[in-house]
Amino acid sequence: MSALIFAGPSLRAVDRGAYPGLTFLPPARQGDLYAAACTRPDAIGLIDGYFDGVPAVLHKEILWALSQGIAVFGAASMGALRAAEMQGLGMVGVGRIFCDYRDGVLGDDDEVALIHGPAELDFPALSLPMVDLRATLARAVAQGVLDPAAADALAAAQKAVFYKRRNWPDLLAGLAPDRPELAAWLAQNQVDQKRADAQELLAAVAAHLDQPAAPAPAPRFRATAAWNAAPWRDTGHESDASGLQSAILDQLRLDPEAYRACRMQALLRHPAPGRGDALSDQAAILAELRGTHGLLRQADLIAWAKAQDLDAAGLQRLLTAEATIRDRARRLDARLGAAVLDRLRWDGRYPVLRAQALARLAAARDEPPRQTPPAPLLVDWFFRSRNLGIPADLSEFVAELGFSDLDRFLLLLAQAYALRDSRAP
Length: 425
Description:
This protein has 20 helices and five strands. It is mainly alpha-helical.
């Protein structure tokens, strides 16, 4: 498993050296996180990012990474800002600074801003971020060096200074004539909160790689005009890295039972989820069981259970176990794609499905639009052609197969129907 970390002045060389399994990149600018996501790491950590005179990391590229099933962590600086803004969409925030932005304790971007030296010198900080000053003053209050009012006054005075001009030497020099004891204490007790939070992110990413948590469903991504026009997008790489592989997985999903079986093989290799996972709808699973085995009446269900040596408690246990497995598979679906494709390679089915997926994509791209049946007839064609009963809850069926929504499923059916029609004699 792999992770890419965007970090500059918030970390030191010794911090990076403590995590040889992580790949470190310079502070991110617009397009960098997208490019990193195109390489398909298991996780991305955003700590530092450019913003002054350089376009900053876009929320949209983070959303795109999340939609690809990549875990994205943020802390300390630009990462804390973006994580506070995107936590509801799946980005994971880490550390005190993130919490303060999330909770509204902090609001201004300049709280984490600083200027620094070049990478060759390990990004030395040349200014003082407000978050580090606030953490230092909080320590002074806790140790009785300052009272809260004096700490607030000192913070307010520095807040009024342009962020590029805030620095420890000027601050200490200003205090030394009248408050030499405070200046001496501050010189020896400076808190580097950004570094502490950045270190916490490294630990969180390493723990995730060691035992990934069950992810929330990947957010839906809509390509806007601005996204499509972004000059830093490598659409060829994007298509090769994700489009074709997603199309192959969709091709496998056209055979629901084969997809479930292949995904189950991939699931067996994945770490178990934590406790407290919500279960899939057991009523829908029971309805599927009835439909599969023709158990239309309650008496039929009871007779079937008896033939399986199951009493009422045993039948409930069977449904609960199936619900647990399906819920885990659904939660991990975005992370299981690579493992499912590997299983197809192992079984020898990958080349056939790849050719079918390419044919479907080519037909959808090159041929003039064909008349597609209304959605109900399209769904009926799909299930009848595969000798499957139409599920009572189509949305549940679609979600259980890993589709983000019903529209994506219907689009796939329309493509498959058009290709079938174009090959008819």
